[in-house]
Target: P-loop containing nucleoside triphosphate hydrolase protein
Amino acid sequence: MGIVEKIKEIEEEMARTQKNKATEYHLGLLKAKLARYRAQLLEPASKSGPAGVGFDVQKSGDARVALIGFPSVGKSTLLSKCTHTASETAAYEFTTLTAIPGVIEYQGARIQLLDLPGIVEGASQGRGRGRQVVATAKTADLILIMLDATKSEEQRRLLEIELDAVGIRLNKRKPDVVFKRRTTGGITLNTTVKLTKTDEKTIRTILAGYKLHNCDVMIREDITTDEFIDVLIGTRKYIPCLYVYNKIDAISLELVDKLARTENTVVISCEMDLNLDYLIERIWESLELVKVYTKKRGARPDLSDPGRSSKFSPHAQKVSLNHQLQDEDVVSIFTK
Ligand SMILES: Nc1nc2c(ncn2[C@@H]2O[C@H](COP(=O)(O)OP(=O)(O)OP(=O)(O)O)[C@@H](O)[C@H]2O)c(=O)[nH]1
Ligand SMILES: [K+]
Ligand SMILES: [Mg+2]
Model:
């Protein structure tokens, strides 16, 4: 019998079994067995398969938000509540086996919300399908680290470690360092600020370690040694992140209050529909999307539809290509 059949058999037995004190233990065993089989389904088919490749889901809309969390924290429940897409939810772990995209429509924008399988410790090292999940997180414009408010604080740190291991830097800006490789001329190292967390000697040792003997380095921020290494490696992703604590219906008000006051954190209950609108507001803010209206020459802008043609601005101003757009700006592009 294959794993899929075994899973089906257990699910049927669970459905047949009445829930009461006498069957509680047996149901618990079945649940654990089910979780184990489903975890096996998530194992990569062959160990030699391509590493670090995300799920094959097309990006769509104006931004992508990825749901990352341990199994059964309520990721699929959230997707089902906030979008028109239903993703299977259940009380056992590893219910979701692949990436399921849904769309949040807000302020005229279409935000892709990506439900993903739960990950376990060691995901980045290739345990289960976890590696594929963290690789997909790298493609997101915003990561929602979803946590079960009833579980220990430890989960948050463990997830951060997994994302860090694949080069994702959460809620951090790219260090302000200019780095240029050269073919000759040795190392030119300049700093515009005093370095208190690392020093020139360390920086030079690292450059030598990476066999970079000819390059220009200009450090414009008080960086750490690790941040400097990130600059050299160059493939780090700096992605904003919100910590979303779900199941607040099951914890004390004191704890809800404490979590809610934490930075970059939103507390919700998918089941009780608590704070979901606020979460979407925070997602919107974190994405820092700007609505830009375009217009044809001589025509008025259609302000009901960002992203389509519209024109006429009362305070028209010609700006260069590197001008930073503000929210609700109206744009005309002149090509001479
Ligand atoms: N008490 C409580 N339970 C919730 C809440 N949201 C979801 N659940 C329950 O948590 C369980 C897991 O929900 P899922 O949405 O399947 O969780 P998931 O994170 O997608 O799980 P996997 O796909 O297995 O990783 C289900 O039994 C849900 O009914 C909530 O706000 N409060
Ligand atoms: K689940
Ligand atoms: Mg799920």
User: Anything to note?
Assistant: Residues 71-72, 90, 92-93, 95 surround potassium ion (ligand 2) (CB under 6 Å). Residues 45-50, 308-314 have pLDDT under 50 and may be disordered.
